[in-house]
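Bug report (template v2)

What were you trying to do?
Predict the complex of my protein with N-(iminomethyl)-L-glutamic acid.

What happened?
Run completed; filing so the output is reviewed.

Input:
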Amino acid sequence: MSAVLLDDIASLVTNDPAAGPGLLGEVRGAALVVEDGKVAWLGPADRAPACDAGVSAAGGAVLPGFVDSHTHLVFAGDRLSDFVGRMSGRPYAPDGIASTVAATRAAPDEILTANVARLLGELRAGGVTTVEVKSGYGLTVADEARALMIARQFTAETTFLGAHVVPTEYAADRAAYVDLVTGPMLAAAAPHARWIDVFCDRGAFDEAEARAVCRAGRAAGLTPRLHGNQLEPGPGVRLAVEIGAASVDHCTHLTDADVDALANSSTVATLLPGAEFSTRARYPDARRLLDAGVTVALATDCNPGTSYTTSMALCIALAVREMGMTPAEAVHAATAGGARALQRDDIGVLRPGARADLAILAAPDVGYLAYRPGVPLVAAVWKDGRPV
Ligand SMILES: N=CN[C@@H](CCC(=O)O)C(=O)O
Ligand SMILES: [Zn+2]
């Protein structure tokens, strides 16, 4: 296959400290060569090798494609009325999930598949090149397996979230539902999933239930990741660290002990500011986590209940404006941080041998993603070395 030179890059974010200074490993006045879907070379433009073809970045910034490590894309219907209620002061509660479960169970495969495709198109247009997708709005053996099979058509990063909430038909017997999730539902889901997740929070699952779900998932070959500490301080972060989860997501209400535990672990803290925006909740304190040495990721949490956005740029802007991150830290968290949360080293970075997944901005610096909030700055997206 022929080599393609991407030239006229004002600022190239590599996330590779060997390539340039700072957290982002930035090269100014750069070029990048793509071959066979991978990065073959990058560096100052005046040292670029000759190539068969060339593309101009038109003086824009180029960065690794965003890695969205937390989404719930397989659903039907919407929850606009919940959102409107919250904007008038009603608090978020997980019981709203039941209405999305009902709509999702009733929807034919074609509707769910088309919905995922539409949302993935939005994510892609906004610069996301890798996406994790959870089940969790089926909550029966057949509906959870179906959600994962649909998600698998689009991504290898699929997550079994049968333990999202206890569905209404099991309200009188929670233990029976945990048995279902850790038994027949897990058996049906595992062939279609890489990860297992559990919502460990008020109104969802307690520590013992969450531990049982994670243990069963690990025994079935899935790696745990958790929703934790979204609604109140609780056991989620502690449990995630204890079991060696890849990531604990939300992290809005943390104790000093939680922050210490994360700092001394390999578990990533994935922050989801779209959820705080759309539930009018307090934002997580990213500064506190970063200063303690915790690895932080940013993700959209795209779902109809708490965060119906596909815009990673919005998440970056909120992280900078509301959570104490610098623009560089937020961009790093949305790229390299997401890759860490998915335990991937071939994405979230641009260096020779990495996947040529990248976004080209109609702006000269990635700081513009926060500086110009709400403006669609992603001019082009390449996945595996090809414009998409
Ligand atoms: N918090 C748990 N799950 C989703 C919300 C699901 C919903 O309300 O539909 C989240 O990550 O925010
Ligand atoms: Zn979630």
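What did the reviewer find?
The CA atoms of residues 328 and 361 lie 15 Å apart. The pocket of zinc ion (ligand 2) is lined by residues 70, 72, 227, 301 (CB under 6 Å).
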